[in-house]
Amino acid sequence: MLAIHPAWIGYSGILASEPLYVALTLAGLAAWGTPRAGALLGLAVLVRPQALLVPVWAWLTERDRAVRPVWLLAALVLLPAAAWTVRNAAVLGSPAFVSTNGGDNLLIGAMGTGRYTPPQPLLPQVPAVPETKRDRSARQTAVGVIKRDPGAWLAKIPAKLYETFLNGRDAPYWAFQFEKGKLGDPGRTDYRSGFLVYRQVCDVAPYVLLGLAALGLVWGRGEKKSAAIQILWIAALSVVFFGNPRFGFPAIPFLSYFAALALDRLIGAAKRDQ
């Protein structure tokens, strides 16, 4: 399923945090029960801070296979981020946990349409200040917007989930960027025909994958709880912040797992009917 997923192919060819994050997360989960899992998931936290909850969910659902003692797992997971936090305290003057874009991301979700928009126009009143202060100001502004009109914030949830799980337009755009240091419209290049075909495939693929995954979730057995939690966690992040197809990239392996369960059952049923 992963080998033929169009977005998986497209995103795997770009230099972005998502492919690295997914590789570290999957490697860590595959090594669950060994100290290597803690080290790999710790590096994943350094790439994307939300990875901090991946081992938590894994421990809650697979605690029988967890590293013993638990403090060793926790130490291995936290060590890389802790070292970077100390670095931030020395360089930025504030012990920011890994990065300082949490406020901007919350602001985008609170004041935007539910999808990614550049945060700068949303907070024009903030002058050029250290990034930790800007992050704090953006977070305070976002919380204020949400408190003033929580209904409007909640109304954006469908758009956020659509962008994360069903919008297939982002991967084709990045997959057809071939000039270093220059971003262009793939629909206006010599690769236009290939780009349009690929985009049509990417428009349909998320719906097929999500439909099969829903069947697999109902029919599946075994480790479906831990895989489902990873998908729900990614959805929750989109709800809190904003929707983005690249946010949904880490969910593709788990959605493919459920889709494969569904296909296996459908193929088995078809063979029995013959």
DSSP strand content: under 5%
Average of per-residue pLDDT values:
87
Unreliable stretches covering 5 or more consecutive residues: none
Oligomeric state as shown: single chain
**Helix segment tally:** 14
N-to-C SSE series? HHHHHHHHHHHHHH
Distance between the termini: 25 Å
- Percent helix: 55-70%
The total domain count is 1
Basic shape: globular
The biggest beta sheet reads: none
Secondary structure tally: strands: 0
Describe the structure.
With 274 residues, this protein is mostly helical. The longest helix is centred in the C-terminal third of the chain and has 28 residues, at 192-219. Helix content is 68%, strand content 0%. It contains 14 helices and no strands. The protein has helices at residues 6-12, 17-30, 35-47, 53-61, 70-91, 102-111, 131-148, 150-155, 157-165, 170-175, 192-219, 224-240, 245-248, 252-273. Helix 12 (224-240) packs across helix 14 (252-273). It has one domain (6-273).
